[in-house]
From TrEMBL:
Belongs to the peptidase M48 family. It is a multi-pass membrane protein. This is Peptidase M48. Keywords: Endoplasmic reticulum, Hydrolase, Membrane, Metal-binding, Metalloprotease, Protease, Transmembrane, Transmembrane helix, Zinc. It comes from the Bacteria. The active site is at residues 275, 356. It is found in: Endoplasmic reticulum membrane. Pfam families: Peptidase_M48, Peptidase_M48_N. It comes from Chlorobium limicola.
């Protein structure tokens, strides 16, 4: 095995080891008593339930990750990458068509192998802890819709990528980058109107105290909304959420029905204020630019490994190809992706603190966001005391207690160290 193979193997094993260590530390950190700050919303039984939920999901995640790693290694060292390639080459199709079949079959195998785990997570673990509301009909419908979108959107995009690298020469990565940036921008614009409604029903929020409070806040902060919608999140889960969609004057807010049902008007406005903070602080734009830059770097590096014989030897491939280069490069790129994800999550946690600060500074009820976070942690059975190493590797949001501590400090109602 050459140096490329060593990098891939070491990265896969090291990443799995780090996950195991982080999970063990995280479980140990969750065995303490309920923090005083949460005693007003957490009963002892509910807190024990949250710890049981953490144990169940952690064990499940470890088993699923180990299975994925084992499946990849078996597929790799059994020569199945080459067997599959030779099978599709036997059809005598062009490079782009063969690449679509090859990569599509790999993705389909991945989804099929993971389906039992998805079913178990949804209908066993989530159901056991009272979260799952998904019916079999909804689950199958979501799978079919996702498959259809993958064919209609992912298929042409992949074909375009393969065509560029197959026929556009040395500047292929640049043409591909420009095309995918454009596609990404178009999808950001059309997704709220055409794609999201395929999975959820969006109903305009009716007139009343909540709508008036949201519109008043949006006007006071110079954040006009073209619509406020209620999304039927309860048809899949009892967990709550809220998010913004759209750009410019087409900005919309979607509130889960489960969120509205369990929070006061002040708390819901505070959640809106937090999301507004992301826009006001340019976090959405920053994340979009970083995502595009990351895509450009990936495509640029991919151009150097295109049809590299040493890389194909690692995976026991007989023939080199553009589509094979794409698959194997992404495995080789995994250590960079892993390190980059840590950096991006650190930035994301910083952004969350900034959005919290914006909400505190613009809401009339400066403590409402803290109250909302406590209720959300209770309804979602969040881990209140995650281990710092686990947070470092996995958290895109700061731990909820850290966020509340900062909110209390900003609002002039500090949490004592004993809490």
């Amino acid at each position: 095995m050459n140096s490329f193979g060593v990098v891939v193997i070491v990265t896969l094993l090291l990443t799995f080891l780090l996950k195991v260590v982080a999970d063990i530390l995280n479980l140990r950190a969750s065995t303490g008593d309920l923090p005083l700050e949460f005693q007003s919303v957490y009963e002892p039984e509910a807190y024990r339930k949250s710890q049981d939920y953490l144990k169940a999901t952690t064990l499940f995640s470890l088993v699923a990750t180990a299975f994925d790693l084992l499946l990849l290694l078996v597929f790799w060292f059994s020569g199945s990458f080459d067997l599959l390639d030779r099978f599709f080459r036997g059809f005598g199709l062009g490079d782009v068509q063969t690449g679509l079949l090859y990569i599509g079959s790999l993705l389909l195998l991945q989804v099929t192998a993971g389906l039992p785990f998805t079913l178990y997570r949804t209908f066993v673990i989530e159901a056991r802890f009272g979260f799952n509301k998904t019916t079999t009909t909804v689950f199958i419908g979501d799978m079919l819709k996702s498959l259809l979108l993958a064919l209609l959107l992912g298929g042409p995009a992949l074909a375009l990528l393969l065509w560029f690298f197959g026929y556009a020469g040395a500047s292929a990565w640049l043409w591909a980058w420009g095309a995918f940036v454009l596609i990404s921008l178009v999808l950001q614009y059309v997704a709220p109107t055409w794609i999201m409604p395929l999975f959820n029903r969006f109903e305009p929020l009716g007139d009343g105290e909540l709508k008036a409070a949201i519109l008043n806040y949006a006007n006071n902060t110079g954040f006009p909304l073209s619509g406020i919608f209620v999304i039927d999140g309860s048809k899949r889960s009892s967990k709550a959420n809220a998010f913004f969609t759209g750009f410019g004057r087409r900005k919309r807010i979607a509130l889960f029905d489960t969120l509205i049902a369990s929070h006061t008007v002040d708390e819901l406005v505070a959640v809106l204020a937090h999301e507004t903070g992301h826009f006001k602080k340019k976090h959405v734009l920053i994340n979009m630019v970083l995502s595009m830059l990351n895509l450009g770097i990936i495509l640029f590096l991919l151009s150097f490994f295109m049809q590299n014989r040493m890389l194909f030897d690692v995976f026991f491939m007989t023939d080199v190809s553009v589509y094979g280069s794409l698959v194997f490069f992404m495995l080789l790129y995994s250590p960079v992706e892993f390190l980059l994800s840590i950096f991006l999550q650190m930035l994301s946690r910083k952004h969350e603190y900034e959005a919290d600060a914006y909400a505190v500074s613009t809401c009339s009820n400066r403590g409402a966001l803290a109250d909302a976070l406590k209720k959300l942690s209770r309804s979602n059975l969040s881990n209140l005391t995650p281990h710092p190493f686990y947070v470092f590797l996995n958290y895109s949001h700061p731990p909820v207690f850290d966020r509340i501590r900062r909110i209390r400090h900003l609002s002039g109602n500090r949490i004592s160290p004993s809490n």
